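Worked example

This section walks through a single chain of length 427. The input is the sequence exactly as stored; nothing has been trimmed or padded.
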Amino acid sequence: MNQNQTRHGLLALSPIIVLLLVYLVGSVIAGDFYRIPIAVAFLLASVYAIAITRGTTFSERITHFSEGAANPRIMYMIWIFVLAGAFAAVAKSVGAVDATVALTLSAIPADFLPAGIFLATCLVSMSIGTSVGSIVALTPIVTGLAEQTGCSLEWLVGIVVGGAFFGDNLSFISDTTIAATQTQGCSMRDKFRTNFRLVIPAALATLIIYAVVGSNIHLATHHTAVDWVKVIPYLIVIVTAVIGINVLVVLLTGIVAAGIIGLTCNTISFIDLFTSMGDGIQTMCELIIITMLAGGLLEIVRLNGGLTFLTNLLTRHIGSRRGAEISITSLTALANICTANNTIAILTTGDIARDISSRYGITPQRTASLLDTVSCVIQGIIPYGAQLLMASGLAAVSPLAIIPHLYYPICLAIIMLISIGLQWPKR
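Given that input, the structure is written out below as tokens.
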């Protein structure tokens, strides 16, 4: 790689650097992570990315940016955000959140509450195969729990986000599992068996942490009678998601169910129902703008050759199987940082990872496991990822305030690094 190629590659990646500098460094200098809106950071980075693009007219650059901002993947995410905001607001207005909180407090012993929430989220995410869906279903519940128990809201939301990635990483119906197995040409069963050895130790370690921490916390719980009828909207959302129904249909069904129950129980009027839906959608407006700006920005980075430069850079000096696995995980991690989407990161680096694996004797299921694991780790800790943005939007907290409480992604990263370093498991 000559000097000109290096300069061009670094220039292509520089919008990502600008984004991180504006958002992270600016917040550190300000001493307050609420002072620098992430939407402004994305806007400045997007303007910079369009300005440094060469070889096309200004109109063509805007077209490329717009195509990235409005591609089907981005628009599908926006549909989820809109419906999730509407469902969360309606469920709260009709009393579904309070009823579900009361049920949770009565079902889980106070000292086991943190571990119980983590275990419940793991089971839900494993069943429905989507971290976003699990976060949508459970974040409003823990928000209510924080209000009634006095626990840190950021801590409880971190428990949900961590547990949500358990299913995203291990479930047979997860899009990351599908992408990883398809790009590496292995069966889901083989990938599951290999991945199981990484995921379970991390989940058990996290569960023990929450059990120990929970035993030292005296929660100010106040048990109230459970209004079972108002729990139905959340039960419908969870059950329909477990069955495998499309997440958009799941959220629509939840909105309809919550609305019918609210009108029947006279807890909300017909006009207030629409008002609540509108208020919920408005809470997602910033998230929608960020998502579209991110899609456009990353399309410009791809167009300028930023991801290709990363690929060539990371595969230049590989001398062993351990080095090959480090290169695969590093490349996927960087792709995830640049795309803010673990599935897209896997699809972006899958073919390269398959080629590296074949040259260094790494089995397809091992490669698929590494791709899925590292992408879930990175996606779980970047503040501009859809999962943290969704959780922060629903809980009305900063995504950066949640990150210190993400024990599961950290435990998973440690187990993965130990596995690569020791070349374990041997089979």
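What to look for: The mean pLDDT is 83.
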